[in-house]
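Reviewer comment 2.1 asked that we show a complete input and output for one of the modelled complexes. We chose the S-adenosylmethionine case, as it is the one discussed in the main text.
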Amino acid sequence: MLRLALRVPREHADIALAELLSLVPAGVEERDLGDRIEYAVYGAPGEIPSLPDLQAAAGGVLVEVITEEVADDWGERWKAFHQPITIGDRLHVRPPWADAPPAGTQDIVIDPGQAFGTGAHDTTRLCLELLLELEPGGELMDLGCGSGVLAIAAAKLGWDPVRGVDHELESVDATRENAAVNGVEVDVSRFDLLRDGPAPTAPTMVANLLRPLLLAVARAGFRGSVPERLIISGLLREQADEVAAAFGVHGLQETARREGGDWAAVLLCR
Ligand SMILES: C[S@@+](CC[C@H](N)C(=O)[O-])C[C@H]1O[C@@H](n2cnc3c(N)ncnc32)[C@H](O)[C@@H]1O
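Response of the prediction step:
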């Protein structure tokens, strides 16, 4: 098993992380080294992205790459990295090996597997916070569903039916499996938001995608009716105004914003 670590200057870390997460959706381990931040991925040779791809993702800001064989405890480290989180005292997102939460919260079990979305990443957490502010009910569409964490949370909160799309087969499979483990129904299919035309819609939508993809969705528009409520996330704080404004052509206006770490999520309503 290999551990491949990239070190970037602290001031460029947020940009590098955004790019890396699009390449390594299951998440990266983060270590604060003072003026540098280290992001590490684990996997067998051939499973993790190639060094040239990672270098390209980190762009010109990469300082150092460290590749090491990791000892047998890598699995424990990976588990320690994926900790449960509670959102708004109502949702508890945990990996399968963590204890069930105390009564009173919705228990959402997500196996980090190959798809993005353990709930712990700020972009997912901020989406869940905004979702908790909405009156649940009716149909919901999750664009870029990853592990299915947002779709599953929505189903548990009372949206029905819940649908999700992702361009990666791993994400479609992970969402199906995680939905089954959580005892909810999510209708998930493969859809490429860059190639397959306007986004499929529902009255309530969540889209935890990065800036370029959200701008592409705003440009391509919606396949059905414009959603009444759309949560956009995956935005660095300084990107949120631009991307929220891009949905203005569809009559969607910002009504709430949540920020955490370097990230922002915005609720747009018609
Ligand atoms: C930041 S992750 C969000 C995952 C999950 N919804 C969450 O909030 O944790 C973005 C997801 O969008 C998917 N994605 C990226 N490009 C896409 C595209 N062109 N079409 C559809 N899905 C895409 C990725 O596979 C990934 O699962």
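The chain has a mean pLDDT of 88. We note this here for comparison with the apo prediction described in Section 3.2.
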